[in-house]
Structure formats: C-alpha cells, structure tokens
C-alpha cells in the first residue's frame, strides 16, 4: 500500500483528496462505493462493477489511480477505515431529522473533519509555511466568498501580534497585488475546491514574479495546489445539503490557528509585546463590566 495510506484514519481523506485526478465517470464509481453501507472485506470486484455500471478492469484502474496496488488492497483498507469510530461519525442529514438529530450530525461531521485533517497533516509542510509567513517582507492573502472570510479571520489574528497581512477578495485587486510581489514576499491562496480561477491566477502570477506561494485547500492535487510551493490540506466528507465546505471550514480554521501560533512562536518576545499593544489599543472599545 502507498505509504500515505498506511494510517487507517487517513484512508478516507486520502481517497477524497485524489478525486480531482479522476474522470467524472471514475469519480462516480468512487462515490458509489462510498455510498455502499454494506461494503466490507468480502465485497467482490464483480459486485462493485455491476453496482457502478462499469467493467471490472475499470474498477481496478481506479483503485490504482487512488494509490492502491489493486482492488484487494483498496477493499481491505476501505473496509477497515469504515469500521473506525471517526468514519461512523458522518451521517447524512435528512428533511425528517429532529433538531437534536441535526445538531448531533452537524457536530459529528465537524469532529470527523478535525480528526481526519489531523491524520493527514504534513508537519514538514506546516513548518515551511510558518517559516515563509514569519520571514516574509509582504504577505498577501487571496480568497473569494467563504474562503475570503477564513483569510480575514487569520489575518486578524496575525495583526494582533504584529504580523501584517493584506486580504484581497476581488479578482482585479488580487492580480494587481500579485504583480507587485517578488523575492522575499509570500502569497497565500485560500480555496476549498482549489479550482477558484481568480485565486489560481493570482498565485500563478505571484510565483512567476518570484514570490513564494502557499495554498490552503481541500485537495492537494488541485490546480491551486499545483501553483503552490507549500500546500496545507483540510479534509471533509460532503453531504447533499451542507456540501463539504461547512466542515472543511472548521478544519481550515484550526490549521490556521495552529499556523498563527507557530508563526508567533518564532519571535515570541515580539509577539507578546505586540499583543499587549493591540489589546491596549482596543481596550476602551470593550464594556467588560456593567455599571
């Protein structure tokens, strides 16, 4: 088995992260397999081929594209993954759910995303990302929609400790920013899918101009990831109602919280002094005591 897939908790996430490498038909086959509640270490190749409406040879080809030696290795790994408590956390939402069931399902999906993101975390990439941000002259963040909100959240945290960043959520502004970056600067692209054209183009231009690039995404084989020197991946299992973004957002916020701490730690004395200054600056805007 591929070394990356040796951790059972990472099996599901690693398969999902490779989905962009598959054709639409191949992706539907994988989705069919994931949807089979009865899938176990005795599920035959013929059964999967029949259920998916494809040939047995295609199923084997897909498992190899996902990083396995063949169908048997894929079946053994996925069957064991499906038995893990974290894999069982994810349950589909339905219109018949009570409020209590909705709360339970949403929370468990987020917990699963956190557990599995932790399982696939590349510590070396994380350290490189912290070094890039800490040592950069200029730090520009690019994101659209919900990803821009994630960028703003971590930008706010960095400002508190004196690490200045700029967030751009307009495609023209992103390109203008990227055009001015160069050696010693870092551009960070935020995109759950890794397919957001505006963010990809900005990261590509920044890289071409000599800046280092970092991608925060759910897919390490995505077009955005291909434009990045360093990639930090979240993972989340989607659902028809919520999609993947909701749970992935929680995981990405946790990755960035950890990144913020790691960057601050690289010059803790300065971070501590700047935190005192920024907290004092806004102290008059707080009403902590009732008069």
Q: Can you offer a commentary on this structure?
A:
This protein has 291 residues and is an alpha/beta fold. The protein has two domains: 1-83, Arc Repressor Mutant, subunit A, CATH 1.10.10.10; 121-282, Rossmann fold (3-Layer(aba) Sandwich). The protein is built from 14 helices and five strands. Strands 2-1-3-4-5 form a five-stranded parallel sheet, with helices on both faces. Helix 3 (45-52) crosses helix 4 (56-65), helix 9 packs parallel to helix 13 and helix 10 (171-180) runs parallel beside helix 11. The protein is globular, with a radius of gyration of 21 Å. It starts with 10 loop residues before the first helix and ends in a 9-residue tail after the last helix.
Q: What is this structure, in a nutshell?
A:
The chain is built from 14 helices and 5 strands.
Main sheet strand line-up? 2-1-3-4-5
What share of residues is helical? Answer: 55-70%
What value does the Rg take, in angstroms?
21 Å
For the report, how would you describe the main beta sheet? 5 strands, parallel
> How far is the N terminus from the C terminus?
65 Å
Helix/strand order: HHHHHHHHEHEHEHEHEHH
CATH class of the largest domain: Alpha Beta
Overall number of structural domains:
2
- Average predicted local confidence, pLDDT: 89
Low-confidence stretches: 1-5
| CATH topology descriptor of the largest domain | Rossmann fold
Judging by the overall fold, what is the CATH architecture of the largest domain? 3-Layer(aba) Sandwich
Count of DSSP strands: 5
The computed structural class is alpha/beta
């Amino acid at each position: 088995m591929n070394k990356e897939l040796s951790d059972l908790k990472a099996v599901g996430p690693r398969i999902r992260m490779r989905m962009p490498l598959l054709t639409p038909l191949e992706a539907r086959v994988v989705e069919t397999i994931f949807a089979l509640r009865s899938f176990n270490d005795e599920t035959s190749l013929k059964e999967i081929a029949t259920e998916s409406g494809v040939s047995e040879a295609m199923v084997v080809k897909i498992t190899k594209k996902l990083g396995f030696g063949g169908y048997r290795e894929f079946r053994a790994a996925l069957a064991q993954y499906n038995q893990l408590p974290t894999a069982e956390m994810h349950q589909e939402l339905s219109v018949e759910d009570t409020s209590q069931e909705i709360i339970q399902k949403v929370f468990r999906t987020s917990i699963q995303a956190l557990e599995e993101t932790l399982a696939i975390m590349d510590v070396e990439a994380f350290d490189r990302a912290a070094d890039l941000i800490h040592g950069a002259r200029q730090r520009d963040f690019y994101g659209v929609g919900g990803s821009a909100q994630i960028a703003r959240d971590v930008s706010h945290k960095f400002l508190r400790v004196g690490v200045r960043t700029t967030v751009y959520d307009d495609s023209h502004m992103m390109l203008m920013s990227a055009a001015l970056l160069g050696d010693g600067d870092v551009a960070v692209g935020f995109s759950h899918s890794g397919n957001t054209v505006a963010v990809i183009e900005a990261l590509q231009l920044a890289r071409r101009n000599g800046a280092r690039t970092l991608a925060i995404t759910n897919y390490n084989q995505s077009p955005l990831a291909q434009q990045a020197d360093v990639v930090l991946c979240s993972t989340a299992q989607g659902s028809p109602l919520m999609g993947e973004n909701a749970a992935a957002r929680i995981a990405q916020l946790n990755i960035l919280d950890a990144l913020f701490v790691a960057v601050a730690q690289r010059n803790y004395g300065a971070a501590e002094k700047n935190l005192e200054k920024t907290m004092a600056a806004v102290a008059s805007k707080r009403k902590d005591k009732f008069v």
